[in-house]
């Protein structure tokens, strides 16, 4: 974890990291919490195939990923799914058709800072396959992959690897 050194309250180089979620200043008793961030991941499914994206930026550039992203302030997880699919794939969805599956903890390392997340997994079923217009800043390509041919080692994030191990058991 990249360590913050200067207290934002008193300005002294005195912040101490507890190794898990909190920076503290012993000089002025200021506390800064690194709380868990909400994120969504959407399994877009057509029959026995899943639509996966390939990451075009760090972390995990080049690895396969589910469409999704971080929940914005004052936004529901379902609205995050809708926004992220629109931004990343220009795919407009009906949030009433989202099916919540599970949640898993994850660590998203970005620029030397570990962000603890709770990843909320949803499934969105489509009746026919499509090819999306991509947000190339985030995604380099997309793939429809038969569920049984998903290689866990190609998946970007640990929470998704754990998710797919369980998800694949049902097929």
Properties at a glance:
single chain; mainly beta; Nucleoside Triphosphate Pyrophosphohydrolase; 2 domains; three-stranded antiparallel sheet
The pLDDT mean sits at 92
Taking the alpha carbons of the first and last residues, their distance comes to 38 Å
Quaternary structure of the protein:
single chain
The main sheet comes to: 7 strands, mixed
Radius of gyration: 18 Å
Q: If you consult CATH, what is the topology of the largest domain?
A: Nucleoside Triphosphate Pyrophosphohydrolase
CATH architecture of the largest domain: Alpha-Beta Complex
**Low-confidence region ranges:** none
- Supply the CATH class of the largest domain: Alpha Beta
Task: State the helicity in percent bands.
Answer: 10-25%
Percentage of residues in strands: 35-45%
Number of domains: 2
**Strand segment count:** 10
**Which structural class is indicated by helix and strand composition?**
mainly beta
**What is the overall silhouette?**
elongated
SSE sequence, one letter per element: EEEEEEEHEEEH
CATH superfamily of the largest domain: Nucleoside Triphosphate Pyrophosphohydrolase
Task: Provide a descriptive summary of the structure in words.
The chain is mainly β and 171 residues long. The chain folds into 2 domains: 1-35, no CATH class; 39-169, Nucleoside Triphosphate Pyrophosphohydrolase (Alpha-Beta Complex). The protein contains 2 helices and 10 strands; from the N terminus they run βββββββαβββα. It has helices at 77-89, 158-169; strands at 16-17, 22-24, 31-33, 37-46, 49-55, 64-65, 67-70, 99-110, 113-125, 139-146. The strands form 2 sheets. Strands 4, 5, 6, 7, 8, 9 and 10 form a 7-stranded mixed β-sheet that branches. A 3-stranded antiparallel β-sheet has the order 1-2-3, with no helix packed on it. Strand 1 (16-17) and strand 2 (22-24) form a beta hairpin. The longest helix has 13 residues, at 77-89.
């Amino acid at each position: 974890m990249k360590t913050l050194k200067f207290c934002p309250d008193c300005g002294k180089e005195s912040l101490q990291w507890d190794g898990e979620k909190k920076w503290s200043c012993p000089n002025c008793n200021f506390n800064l919490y690194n709380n868990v961030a909400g994120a969504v991941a959407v399994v877009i499914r057509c029959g026995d195939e899943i639509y996966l994206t390939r990451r075009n930026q760090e972390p995990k550039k080049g690895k396969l990923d589910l469409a999704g992203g971080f929940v914005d302030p004052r936004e529901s997880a379902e609205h995050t799914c809708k926004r992220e699919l629109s931004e990343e794939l220009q795919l407009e969805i009906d949030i009433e058709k989202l099916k919540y599956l599970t949640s898993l903890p994850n660590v998203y390392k970005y620029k030397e800072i570990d962000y603890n997340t709770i990843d909320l997994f949803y499934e969105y079923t489509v009746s026919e396959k499509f090819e999306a217009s991509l947000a190339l800043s985030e995604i380099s390509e997309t793939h429809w992959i038969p569920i049984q041919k998903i290689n866990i080692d190609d998946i970007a994030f640990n929470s998704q690897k754990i998710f797919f191990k369980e998800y694949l058991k049902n097929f």
